[in-house]
Each structure stands twice: as C-alpha cells, then as structure tokens.
Specification:
416 residues; mainly alpha; 15 helices; disordered N terminus; Sulf_transp_TsuA/YedE
Length: 416
C-alpha cells in the first residue's frame, strides 16, 4: 500500500508519479451514505427547500477539498517558508472563476428562490487586522484553517477534533468580545471594489483579474529567486475513476470550489461561510447551561433569530455538516480513513491554535472561506487585507511551530 501523509501536512514521502490506491472502505462508504440520506430526509421534511440543497453542496465541497488535498494553511506555509507558490496560484484561479460568477449574480441581485443576494463586505479596522493575524498563527498551530479543520475531521485526523472543539470555544469567546473590537476601536467603512469606487461590477471584475494576475506573477518571481522544490504527486488513478478515487488536480478543485461557492450564493443569498456556525454552536451550549448569551451584543439584531432557532435551520451549520460528510466519503472511497495518533505537543498546539482560529475569525469577520475566499469573490477590500495579515501571522507561526514538535518546510523538502 502507498503511504499517504496526513491531511494538510507539508512533507510527503511519495515521489512516484503513479501509485496504487488503497481499497475502498465499503462499510464506511455505506455508513456515510446512510447518515447523509437520513439527514437529507430530515431537512427535506422539517426545513425550507434550501437546507437539503445546501447539504448536497456541502458534501460536494468536502469531497472536493479532500480529493484534491486543497489547502489554505499549507499553501500559506509553503509560500512563507520556502517560496513555493503553486498552491497560491491555484487560489488565484479559484478566485478568478469566483469573481466571474459572482459579478452577474451580485449585479442582478436574485437567488434561486427569489430572495436577494449579498456578498461578504466588511469594515476595515483594528478588529480585521488583529483577527486575521491571529487566525494566520492559529491555522499553523492548529493544523488547518476553517475548511481544513472540517475536512480533516471528516478524513479521520484525530488531533483535528481537538482543534475543532477549541475553534468553537474561541469563536464563542470572540462573539462575546466582538462589540469591544468593532464599536470601541477605530474602523473605516466597508469598501467594495464594485460599489464604493464607481467601477461597477464590470470594472471591479477587470481590476480583480488584474490583481490575481499580479499576485501570480509575484509568486513566480519568488520561486525563480528562491528555487523551492515542487509539490510532489500524490496517489491517483486514471480515467473516470478519478472522479471518485485518487487525487484531483489543484486546478480542477479550484474551479469546482468556485462553482460550488456561486451555487451557495444563489441558494441561500450569501456566499459560503464556516465559522459563524461555531459561535452559534458554542452559544447554544452555554444557553443550555443557563448562560444569558442572548444579552450579548453579537446576538442582537440580525443574529438573534439564529440563536432562538434550531441549529438545523442555520444554513452555515448544514454546509459544515455536509463538508464533514463529503470528506468522510472521499476518504473512505480512497481507503484512507483512519484515526491518527496524537501526543501532548500535538494536543497543546491544537488547543492554542483552535482558540486563535476561533477568536481571530470572529474579529476578522470571517475565516479563510468567509473573509478571504468569500470576501474577495464579493469584491470586498477586506478580503485582500485578510490575506496579507494571515500571511504575516503564518510567517510568525513558523518560529513557533518547532516548540510544539511541528515541522517547518526546508528547501530540500518535497510537498504534497
């Protein structure tokens, strides 16, 4: 059997261009499909029509993320450590497809079910700067970003269950503290490249494509200067079977994720997001134990209805459950699902990383999905600022990772 490195790890011993895959774990596949079918049926009978559709989209998102090993954490780490920009260029392709799809949707302003649509456009202030920086550190200690944590849990990476737990804790604390960061500290109004500049969605699309091209060129220049190793191939298969088993090319996953994000926007009226559900889950637990979370500033106004409703009425929760299920099915189809070992240093890094991830995401108005992917796709300036500060946090985290026994890529390493 070919040994596959755990999800989102950087080093990979696989050097061959082709390798045999493990046999599908049929019992796990059947179990995952049964759980998905039960949840889909429950949503169809108890919730609006959008919820079961979002579950399907979530499953496809999780399947895509794991199949391609499509990472944000590892992409930032490769660039910051040795100058490998291959994965960042796949992000630029994803964003280019996303803005191309988002522009007409946001311009016309209608979803599949007749409601309005709105992108993620957030204020520019201290909260964003601090939150994105903390998130960048957190994802390098916790071993994954928001989407990475979900699909790593679905893939059976044991330590990521701890990261997820403290991600929820950190997000809940961040929700409690958010009024201080947003109301008591300086901030500028949100800036949309489309509506705040007079460019319109056509001009904002052209500017965005130019920026993605510039970032792509910068990564190529960095690679020529630093001469980092290329990403090593991972086990895959050929033909139509590759749809279900084996690794997908990064470019294919980038396109798929952009299309699925656009479908999410058309289905629920807002882009894909992850971490607002974590604040909801944590607050629901506190409510169960008698804490008056309804009095928090975060849960006033538009967020109040979510706190009082079932979590199955929360579209972000449904997407998250779908991502976990999709990653689980992809892992089982590739014969890869297996709980991994942990040690005290892994646990400590997961705890600290999870807290920073959750707290940072709340302060920064989102994570790598809601702020970076969704924000940039929505033509929001805060998405670009988030990316810069998260990369800065990643650079700092490279000096912290060895304290927890976590590797830092060197120029001689190969990448998965």
């Amino acid at each position: 059997m070919t040994k596959v490195q755990p999800i989102d790890e950087v080093k990979d011993p696989v050097q061959e261009k082709s390798a045999d895959l493990n046999k599908p774990q049929k019992s796990l596949i059947i179990g995952g499909l049964v759980v998905a079918a039960i949840l889909l049926s429950y949503l169809a009978f108890t919730q609006t029509i959008a919820q079961p559709l979002l579950l399907v989209i979530g499953v496809l998102l999780g399947y895509t993320l794991l199949h391609a090993r499509f990472g944000f954490t590892s992409a930032f780490r490769r660039l910051a450590s040795v100058g490998n920009g291959q994965a960042i260029r796949s992000h630029m392709l994803m964003l280019a497809v996303a803005v191309t799809l988002f522009a007409p949707i946001l311009a016309f302003g209608y979803s599949f079910f007749g409601g309005g649509v709105s992108g993620y456009v957030a204020p520019l202030g201290v909260s964003l700067l601090v939150g994105a920086f903390l998130f960048g550190i957190g994802m390098q200690l916790g071993g994954g970003c928001a989407s990475g944590t979900l699909y790593a849990v679905g893939g059976g990476r044991t330590v990521m269950f701890i990261t997820l737990l403290f991600f929820i804790v950190g997000s809940t604390i961040g929700a409690y503290h958010l009024p201080f960061w947003t109301e008591d500290l300086p901030a500028f109004e949100p800036v949309s490249l489309a509506t705040s500049t007079g460019l319109g969605y056509g001009g904002a699309w052209a500017l965005s494509i130019a920026l993605f091209g510039l970032i792509t060129c910068i990564t190529i220049i960095i690679e020529k200067k630093r001469k980092p190793p290329k990403m090593a191939p991972v086990p895959s298969t050929r033909g139509w079977k590759r749809i279900f088993r084996g690794s997908w090319p990064l470019f294919a996953a980038a396109i798929a994720l952009a299309v699925l994000n656009a479908l999410t926007l058309m289905t629920r009226g807002t882009p894909w997001g992850v971490t607002s559900a974590f604040a909801l889950w944590g607050s629901k637990v506190l409510m169960f134990f008698g804490v008056d979370v309804a009095s928090w500033g975060y849960w006033q106004g538009a967020n109040e209805a979510a706190l009082q409703s079932s979590i199955f009425a929360d579209s972000t929760t449904i997407l998250n459950l779908g991502v976990i299920l999709g990653a689980f099915l992809a892992s089982a189809a590739g014969g890869l699902f297996k709980f991994t070992s942990i040690n005290l240093k892994n646990v400590a890094a997961a705890v600290i990383g999870g807290l920073l991830l959750g707290y940072g995401a709340r302060l920064a108005f989102g994570c790598n999905i809601g702020a970076y992917f969704g924000g940039i796709a929505s033509f929001s300036l805060h998405g670009y600022i988030w990316g810069i500060l998260a990369l800065a946090g990643t650079s700092v985290a490279l000096y912290i990772r060895p304290l927890f026994g976590l590797s830092v890529p060197k120029s001689k390493d190969s990448f998965c």
